[in-house]
Here is the input.
Amino acid sequence: SWYFSKMNTVTSPTASAAKPLREHGFSEDIHIISNGIDVGRFCCTQDKQKIRQRYHLPDTPILLSLGRLDPEKNVDMILRALPAALKKVDIHFVIVGSGKTEKKLRKLARSQGIDHAVTFLGLVPNEDVPELYAIADSFVIASTTETQGVVTMEAMSAGLPILAANVLALPELVQDGENGFLFPHTDAKMLAERIVRVFSDKALRKRMSKKSVELIEKH
Here is the structure.
């Protein structure tokens, strides 16, 4: 608060990111300005079969996660939700990114007996990212540190239903029941239920897809 009080102008990408400043005594105006997103980069259908072959992905509905594999991203919670979900829906979980927890996450997938339904892609070329969104059927993010959530904005631009932790700025992007579902970031059981609901209802996915594209336009 002391540091920002010396500034002429203070901006924040979301109201959620600005809230802690206000709670700690910062009384000046904070201008909420989205980081923005080039929706055109993610809106168009790519050659879906080609990208599946490149990364050896099965011809199965895909749940996608993209980002750093670090503790605060909570990808382990997503993996813990998968066994229950896989009993009811046939899906494949694709994880894009690398980080400190990658080895532990791979071990967790094996220990739960779900490694056949999980692919770790690591870091991928930037030009492949839109194509990976294009082959996905839903996007999931369990992070507890998002001050906006650029990857979530990318997924919305690609028309994906979003499963997001109900933490910080993610609820500013995801309207529960409209363009996806929110879940408590520690509740693997509820996430499993949300995964099953999205992947067992094609009409719901289509409606949520349309809403994601509609909501991202303001960014």
Q: What stands out?
A: The beta strands are 11-12, 31-32, 62-66, 92-96, 118-122, 138-141, 162-165, 180-183. The chain has a mean pLDDT of 95. The radius of gyration is 18 Å.
